[in-house]
Amino acid sequence: MKAAWISGDHDFLHTNFDFEKQNETGYPEETLNGKVKLNWSEINSAAVSEDGWIHLKKKSDIVLIAVHFFRTGTYSRYAFRLTADCPARLNVRGSDIIRYQTPGKPESNLLPYLGGYGLSRTLLVLKPEKDFSFKLEITPLSGNHFMNTLPDHMSASGNKDNYPAAKISNDRITAVIPLPDPQTGYYRGTRFEHFGSITSMTIDGNQFFKEFGPLPHNPNERDAVAGPVGEFIEPLGYDDAAEGDHFIKIAVGVFEKPFEKNCHSGSDYWIVKTFDCRTQKYNDCISFEQNSPNINGWAYKYKKTISLPDGKTVLKIENELLNTGTKRLRTSYYAHNFINLGNSTRSAEYEIEFPFVPGIISKDNLKIPINGKKLVITENCSFLLKGFNNADDNWVKIKNISTPLVLKCQWDFPLYYLQLYYDYTAVCPEPCIHIDIAPGESKKWNFTYLPSI
User: Fold this and answer.
1) pLDDT of the residue at 21
2) How far from chain centre, in Å, is Cα 412?
3) Tell me, what DSSP letter sits at residue 275?
4) Residue 185 CB partners (closer than 8 Å, separation 6+)
5) CA–CA distance from 284 to each of 112, 307, 308, 335, 417 (Å)?
6) Would you state the pLDDT for residue 61?
7) Mean pLDDT for each consecutive 10-residue tract of the chain (453 residues)?
8) Do 416 and 367 form a contact (C-beta atoms < 8 A)?
9) So what's the pLDDT on residue 419?
10) Which three-class secondary structure string do you get for 294-315?
11) Gap between the Cα atoms of 27 and 206, Å rounded
12) Which of 7, 83, 153, 229, CA to CA, is 20 to 30 A from 431?
């Protein structure tokens, strides 16, 4: 927990500080609204009493208190309660939720549902007339965490150009692959595997993959990934774990189970520990290998190799998962494939070709033109596809209509499902494989990408 002491004559109740323009992690910039100087300092633990009250000396007219809050209740609302002996405002995720003017009387506010969003920066603004005290409380749900100091993997510090990365190339293709690191890695979120993003794949300067997520890049953001990165959907041991116990997310780490009975794919969970990863890099190839500890009988060895075969306009991704635990390993994996051909803009139209006549499964009233085995996407959409039924239904071809660029994506497994996602920044065919591995056995699956210009 940090405090910034603000001097000067400010309209305490009506000034709209630009909190929402700052990152959700970290602290507001050195100046607030472009003019108020902020000097942050840690609050001494001696100022915190056993009953949760914080007692501070008055040093200025306005005090800004910052603390981070992590919520794991995906489909549960939660409330803050504030008690203070001076006027105060409580700001969560860029909005004032409490404006406190009655000293000594607790005030609460129930926040709206915010699905899948774990980390929030909480800011308390106080206007003391003398030495003051306050107490901030949260709905007592298991899995919630107040953090005085952000863990390394949640920090948004640094510039994306400084994240460790490796470059591989052959005589045709150059690819840039971020390297996993719990303190400085490009992606430290909870949804996707921590290795497997490709931030750039180019041929003669033409780009084929896309960085995804809000800008500036925040490594803690759950969707801040790139290219053909994948996700293991079902975690290991969630159903059997008691509230507060641990479960495994493959290619990420150990998580804490919250109070909710059901696991929700893509949601944020509290990371207890990220798993180490061993990397081997060559001129045209890079491999990642991860061995998990045994958590209640679940354990694995996972290897991913990204390569550029010599003399070919091809990128290959090979995956192998070995069950090193004592329990049967059941999950599913999909490559999200954030594809953007030629750094296209919001006006891009994509033609997508399949080896089968595609059908659309969606609750939305989507109007997507289908011509034989091709469809054209021009607006935001997400839907499942039907029509595949044999081993030859194992590819999809993406074409940017306004350019000659084409990317064909192939896989070597029967489809568990196939989803298509598009949001103007990337078009994403998502082939998924079902995985069921007995102890001591392994499963291999591969992707091949064939770009052309």
Assistant:
1) 44
2) 27
3) P
4) 153, 163, 164, 178, 179, 194, 219
5) 49, 6, 5, 21, 31
6) 82
7) 75 52 54 67 85 90 81 70 91 81 85 62 86 86 67 58 90 96 89 95 93 80 92 96 93 90 80 94 98 96 98 97 98 97 78 97 88 92 95 96 94 97 91 98 99 94
8) no
9) 98
10) CECCECEEEEEEEECCCCCCCE
11) 38
12) 153
Hey, what amino acid is at 143?
G
φ/ψ of residue 392, rounded to 5: -80, -10
Per the DSSP assignment, residues forming a β-bridge with 374 are: 353, 371
Q: Give the tokens for residue 390.
A: 């044999």
pLDDT at residue 373, rounded to an integer? 97
DSSP conformation letters of 362-410: -SS-----EETTEEEE-S-EEEEEE---STT--EEEEEETTSS-EEEEE
**Shortest CA distance to 76 belongs to which of 117, 38, 37, 42?**
117
What predicted TM-score, i.e. pTM, was given to this entire model? 0.83
Residue ranges and CATH numbers for the domains of the chain are 36-138 (2.60.120.260), 165-452 (2.70.98.10)
Sign (positive or negative) of CA dihedral 289, 431, 382, 449: positive
Q: What is the pLDDT of residue 45?
A: 81
123 and 19 Cβ atoms separated by less than 8 Å: yes
CA distance 451 to 6: 55
- State both tokens at 418: 């196939």
| Dist. CA 40–CA 67, nearest whole Å | 12
Q: Cβ(104)–Cβ(111) under 8 Å? A: no
Tokens 């033409």: give the residue. 206
The Cα 167–Cα 289 span in angstroms is 18
Residue 116 amino acid letter: G
Which residues, including other chains, have CB under 8 Å from residue 26's CB and lie 6 or more apart? 121, 150, 155, 156, 157
- CA of residue 319 relative to chain centroid, distance: 22
CB atoms within 10 A of CB 16: 9
Report in angstroms the alpha-carbon separations of 311 from 203, 314, 407: 13, 9, 18
**Whole-number CA gyration radius for the chain:** 25
Q: Helix (H) and strand (E) counts for the chain?
A: 0, 36
Work out the number of other CB atoms within 10 angstroms of the CB of residue 38: 16
Q: Using DSSP bridges, classify how beta strands 132-138 and 95-100 pair: parallel, antiparallel or unpaired.
A: unpaired
Entry field: residues in the chain = 453
Cα(194)–Cα(188) distance, integer angstroms:
7
